[in-house]
């Protein structure tokens, strides 16, 4: 009986782990930037509303938190027309009114997946990527900003 429970549990964990992998097919289409999360502060790009974690509200002095939120809100204005379009292995990324074209692959790295992109201007990026509740989440490994996209 214990062996059966262990086998069942192992199968469930295997199923959950495999279902979290992103395929190129899942990424196809247009993705609109809907949120930016940085240091526990989340900006809803469309509405301009800002949400802060309770931890930030306690650890960051109110004046400093207000300045941070204001800076994020100002930056958010330039993100309203940001999106990613993926067709096959081709990618078009528009952010801050700048558009880049390139191609990508998805790589497994330890327990995460990376989207590795080579742009037509010769620049490259390799950043963690996941889909959570139907939203595409891309984390900038340098700034630790998480960009959250919704499929259109």
List keywords for this structure.
alpha+beta, disordered N terminus, 45% strand, 29% helix, globular, Lipocalin, 8-stranded antiparallel β-barrel, 4 helices, single chain, 152 residues
Give a written overview of the molecule.
With 152 residues, the protein is of the alpha+beta class. It starts with a helix and ends with a strand. It is globular and about 45 Å long. Helices cover 29% and strands 45% of the residues. It has one domain (23-151): Lipocalin (Beta Barrel). The model is unreliable at 1-19 (pLDDT under 50). Strands 1-4-5-6-7-8-9-10 form an 8-stranded antiparallel β-barrel. This is Lipocalin-like domain-containing protein.
Question: Helix-strand pattern, N to C?
Answer: HHEEEHHEEEEEEE
Walk across the major sheet and give the strand order.
Answer: 1-4-5-6-7-8-9-10
Instruction: Give the proportion of residues in helices.
Output: 25-40%
Query: What structural class do you assign from the helix and strand content?
Result: alpha+beta
Mean pLDDT: 82
Radius of gyration: 18 Å
CATH fold-level topology: Lipocalin
Reported for the largest beta sheet, the result is: 8 strands, antiparallel, barrel
Low-confidence stretches: 1-19
Architecture, CATH level 2? Beta Barrel
